[in-house]
Amino acid sequence: MGAKVAVLDYGIGNLHSAQKGLLHLGVDAKLTSNPAEIEAADGVVLPGVGAFGATMNALEQSGLGVLAVDAAASGRPFLGICVGMQVLYERSEEAPDVKGLGILNGSVRRLPAGVKHPQMQWNQLEVTSEHPLLEGLDGEWFYFVHSFAAEHTSDVIAVTDYGGPVVAASANDNVWATQFHPEKSSNVGLTLVSNFVKQVERSVA
Amino acid sequence: MKTVRVIPCLDVDDGRVVKGVNFVGLRDAGDPVELAALYDEQGADELVFLDIGASHEDRDTTVEMATAVAEKVFIPFTIGGGVRTVDDARKLLRAGADKVSINSAAVSRPELITEIATEFGSQCCVVAIDPRRSTTPGLSSGYEIFTRGGRQATGIDAVEWAQKAEQLGAGELLVTSMDRDGTYEGFDNEMLTAITSVVNIPVIASGGVGSVEHLAPGVIEGGADAVLAASIFHFGEASVAEAKESLTEAGLIVRPIA
Questions:
Q1: Candidates A49, A123, A186; nearest CB to B121
Q2: Which residue of A has its CA nearest to B37?
Q3: Are B76 and A14 in contact (CB under 8 A)?
Q4: Could you tell me if A44 and A18 are in contact, meaning their C-beta atoms sit under 8 angstroms apart?
Q5: Tens place of pLDDT per residue across chain B (258 aa)
Q6: Distance CA A100, CA A106 (A)
Q7: A94 and chain B: CB distance < 8 Å anywhere?
Q8: For residue B16, what are the contacts with CB-CB under 8 A and spacing of at least 6?
Q9: CB contact under 8 A, A23 and B71
Q10: Inter-chain CB proximity B70 and A189 less than 8 Å
Q11: Cis peptide before B8 (omega within 30 of 0)
Q12: Residue B137 to residue B206: CA distance in whole angstroms
């Protein structure tokens, strides 16, 4: 049996794409808000679209915020995508009164001035710190849709150029995250998802 | 850096892709899922499906199509046409569409833009605008928006409407020149400039592309962020690769084809 991945379903936006990418790779992936299923999963994905505040509210109301924090603390491979990456941080300029999950240290800030907000385009990845998530992907192109991004901390593993270097991916121990949408980045995106799945498989082997 | 997106547009009726010239005289050009996969392979950055069918049954077929496309194709896609309520948008987004495009329904009830943006985020709310040069009195820009596939004059100024759509929460504008659509004469870059110079959200240029050389001016002269075309791609007159080559030769940056 392959590894089981839980994609957290907190009920807003389009959260299905991440699951579809995983299913396409033959992974047993469930879109779920069920605590038992999340607990039983070998890896957890926190997808995201939309706003920081609305996402945090939905995570709190559904109880999935606490489950996400527990899953990250359990040491199991964890992947945050887009706003699902941003909420891993402590706070965001987008909603200064809303607390993030605080799984990663630091803040989320508005994109540099002088460029269009949101960045809604494909952009090139520059790997700044070798990482299994980004294996074979330095210089590849991914699809971004965002107006905010994490600040530069020691967790950053890749950036992209949008009015200056913008944080594109971070990792701290078992918690990995991408600002771009791997599930919408064609074959290279699926390669990244597959790199995450390999980590999940290694963790259960 | 700014990267120009190349977006093939597929007109869909009852689950099949069709393309009309000035929206009449439709020709059948294939299966949406297969075409979407083909465009992904060719290096398309995004896809737009415009549902031109009107029936209630057609709505359900479109949701099924979104599901089928999302299972096979891993690039962003937008579905427009017939989205009238938050519930219509929800069905398409939950089926796997990344964005919905609204046009006539937003003109008759502008709050719909805010409702969709609030519920799902601005990034999935595209407002489609179909301007035509017009002598209707009271238009400050000289461009009037038309609805119902270009058939219905509204008396609303296109540039003012674009600004209002942005204020109401639109994340992107899809601007199709009704003067140029189906003419193969190139984008109406003057009209595009009138809009792109007053909004800060991404604008997709549409309407009139007859060759890949028509694409770059939409960005360089018209100020657009992305270029959309239908016929030149569907009937094999040009490939996405040729479109990207042409944009690159004009000095623009595109995602290279793998």
A1: A49
A2: A186
A3: no
A4: no
A5: 899 999 999 888 888 887 643 333 334 456 888 888 889 989 999 999 999 876 677 788 899 999 999 999 999 999 998 899 999 999 999 899 999 999 999 999 999 999 999 888 899 999 999 999 999 999 999 999 999 878 889 999 999 999 999 999 999 999 999 999 989 999 999 999 999 999 999 999 999 999 999 999 999 999 999 999 988 887 778 889 999 999 999 999 999 987
A6: 10
A7: no
A8: B28, B30, B31, B32
A9: yes
A10: no
A11: no
A12: 26
Tokens of A60: 């709190």
Q: Which residue, B16, B41, B63, is CA-closest to B240?
A: B41
Structure tokens at B171: 């994340």
List b or e across A178-193, with b for residues whose CB sees 16 or more CB atoms inside 10 angstroms.
bbbbbbbbbebbbbbb
Cα–Cα dist A137/A71, whole Å = 27
- Using CA atoms of B161, B167, B171, B172 in order, give the dihedral in degrees to the nearest 10: 30
Domain boundaries, chain A: 4-204
CA B107 – CA A149 distance, rounded (Å): 33
- Contact yes or no for A3/A200 (Cβ under 8 A): yes
Question: Tokens standing for B150?
Answer: 């270009």
Q: Do B98 and A185 touch (CB under 8 A)?
A: no
Q: Are strands A126-127 and A107-110 parallel, antiparallel or unpaired?
A: unpaired
User: What burial class does residue A96 get, using C-beta atoms within 10 Å of its C-beta: 0-12 exposed, 13-18 middle, 19+ buried?
Assistant: exposed
**What kind of architecture, by CATH, is found in domain A4-204?**
3-Layer(aba) Sandwich (3.40)
**Measured between CB atoms, does B140 come within 8 Å of chain A?**
no
Question: HEC profile for chain A?
Answer: CCCEEEEECCCCCCCHHHHHHHHHCCCEEEEECCHHHHHHCCEEEECCCCCHHHHHHHHHHCCHHHHHHHHHHCCCCEEEECHHHHCCCCEECCCCCCCCCCCCCCEEEECCCCCCCCEEEEEECEECCCCHHHCCCCCCEEEEEECEEECCCCCEEEEEECCCEEEEEEEECCEEEECCEHHHCHHHHHHHHHHHHHHHHHHHC
- Residues with Cβ within 8 Å of A151's Cβ and at least 6 positions away in sequence, in order, are A106, A107, A108, A109, A167
Task: Report strand pairing: B143-147 vs B226-229.
Answer: unpaired
Q: Which two tokens stand for residue A120?
A: 């809604």
What's the whole-model pTM score? Answer: 0.94
